Amino acid sequence: xxxxxRQSFHRLGALFHSARDDRELDTEIAAHLxxxxxxxxxxxxxxxxxxRQALLRFGGAQQAKEQHRDVRGLPFAETALxxxxxxxxxxxRNPGFSLLAILCLTLGVGATAAVFSWIEGxxxxxxxxxxxxxxxLAVTGTARGEAGHTGLSWPDFLDLQKSCTLLDAxxxxxxxxxxxSLGERAQRVTGSIVSSNYFQALGVQxxxxxxxxxxxxxxxxxxxxxxxxxxxxxERFRGDPQIIGKTQRINGLVHTIVGVAPEGFYxxxxxxxxxxxxxxxxxxxxxxxxxxxxDRGARWIxxxxxxxxxxxxxxxxxxxxxxxxxxxxxxxxxxxxxxxxLWPLWQTPFNNAGTLLPTLATMLTVVILVLLIACANVANxxxxxxxxxxxxxxxxxxVGAARARLLRQLLTEGLILSSLAAAGGLLVAYWCRxxxxxxxxxxxxxxxxxxGEIDWRVMALSGAVCLVCTLLFALFPALQxxxxxxxxxxxxxxxxxxxxxxxxxARSSLVxxxxxLSFVLLVGTGLLLQxxxxxxxxxxxxxxxxxxxxxxxLLSANYDAPRAKNFQDELIDHLQALPGVESAAFARSTPxxxxxxxxxxxxxxxxVPPPDELPTVSYNEVxxxxxxxxxxxxVSGREFSRxxxxxxxxxxxxxxxxxxxxxxxxxxxxxxLQVKDRWMQVVGVxxxxxxxxxxxxxxxxxxxxxxxxxxxxxxxxxxxxxGPEVMVSALGxxxxxxxxxxxxxxxxxxxxxxxxxxxxQRVAVTLTExxxxxxxxxxxxxxxGVMSYTVSQSIRELGLRIALGARSADLFRLVMSRGxxxxxxGMAIGAAAALGLTPLLGYLLYKxxxxxxxxxxxxxxxxxxxxxxxxxxxxWRAARVDPMVALRYE
Length: 890
Fold this sequence. Notes:
By secondary structure, the chain is of the alpha+beta class. The chain is 52% helix and 14% strand. Strands 1, 2, 3, 4, 5, 6, 7, 8, 9 and 10 form a ten-stranded mixed β-sheet that branches. α13 (352-388) packs parallel to α25 (759-793), α19 (502-537) crosses α27 and α27 (808-837) packs antiparallel against α28.
């Protein structure tokens, strides 16, 4: 063991003193040769013969040196350093080639690393400052026989929290919006209603003050306290160190600030950075529908669990399902057919993780294709360069270099290129980590928060990608270069446009890869463009062009319910008197927004549900004239009027889907519907429309009068042919006339609302267009490079063809046909691949077949045009060859 350590240290030391050791070895070898020559001279030999005999007896001096180096040092490391030094010299000697190869790879690796950072920061580890995110799971409710998910009720949450033993923590977070009063103006901010154990469960400790206490979960608006974000503390309160105990008016109610969250903690919602948190007892201040903490049928909360170490999701799911089953037996009136499901963070269905998952999955596939195209491009460059270095390789093999040594040298040069590209790619990814926010519009004046995360995992994965890239783009050219026939290579070789040389098929095969992958990306881009156009032009069942929506801030102006009702009526009257305004109405929920509709358990006269069904239907609280204002056709009956107030009999309007399901072919007009133990009469049937997504299937929904289910958090809908800019001024004038302290929120059209709801599809289209354009550029460079090199290697053949009578047009067609043949072959392969891969777009396509022929035609036209452009210049050069010069060309 001691000898082995001593030898290891000697070898390591020799690595750093190789020059000194070589000088000592040269001196020692020279001394041995001098002694041998002296002996031969003493034997009477002539000086020249004495030296020759000494060298023969000694053996090869260079071989002796190599044997000595193998024994004394670390041959592999020394060889690697030599290869690296030689590789850098070769890159400096060919700066144009080096820059082009590094640029191609940097773009490919940078795009890939950027998508890795988005996936890491939005799906796998989306919550900065939260510990052990790998053990966090999202929790939702389920309803038997219904697709999708539901929320949980607060009583169910408490029972699950007490009964589950495999969980470290079970906590609630429900996104909400708030109006922050700033002197005479108001600002919309995002916040969360959370359980009192929220910060403790996440391992997040406020930097000032405290988190919430257990008793602050109880009571109706009994604990108006808040923890504010670090950002809000800095911007609103200028980092006041005495902030704890001070107050802030949120949603018209004074809240005491009890804590400040640490910098870098943005809450547990993917998409928006939370500015404040309030305890669950403040639910009825921020959520419509009254106090829900004691209502087991009110399913409004979103929650998470943290698994105990060593517990799997399957084990936790089994336990929580068993508890949910017991609750179903204990509370059949509210829990019949109800279950609980656990989701990994990257599939969380109640925030933008689930929304962006299909987009990011598609982008990952796209960037891998772009990376392969970049690798094929660089491989082609290296292949051409290796053919140009054929004489060098031939000489090195001829003087004794091993083919394995040659292969290792070429791989080292490829590794240098990929390492430089990796550094550049990570820099590109760092610049692009916030790019998604630029592609998604702000909502309600609040910008989204979608940062990428470049941590050691992203860097390690990017490094692994570069290593694989090295094998992809450097191994193939290196193998081609190492298969040199020394005897044949030393002879002159004349290339041809159609020459059957091995290097021709190698270059062409790489171009086929580029063209086929580019074709697949173009087909995908065409499908997504069609899908986005159709989803935005399709009718959602209500008007989008002539309807504007906004909010009116009555909370900050301290309105109570009676005063708010009078204000809403007066505002509607004033607006409807304006020229250009056809109608106006308030509604609690806006279709296609992130906000959810209210839902309730129902009973219908004459409808007997199956034993495992607990009928629950969504509903919207709307004002008089809402259906006309929103452009939702009324099939039969009437809609609400001002007579349908709190003193009138409860009434409802159902949609066609609900009428068909619960009245089964009979007219529901005049029939009764029970909602929350209150019977109401159906007075109208409306057309079914889209409510939360353009992709949703028709589902039951009903409307109730806003006056009979009043909330201050209502959206104002205005049917008008006036543009938003004109209407903003008019609305502002009317509000100032009624009450100068009331201000409107953002005013947009329902068409803008529809476009915002399709933002994930637009992001997918935009990113695919960018990456597809990049792939097309790389493919064009590859096609141009191959055709240009082919022409340069075929100068003598072209000159001979001219000398035999070929015209310039014939040579032009010859080269163009070669390029177009490659393009056609690549497109044929790409079409077959596209037919197999495009179904993966799945969720992102809307009323478009994954095998739509228009997308194939689009890809064919674009790629054909690009190929023509890429082949034109080499073909033009071939047509202008001077035969006198060409026949002397070497």
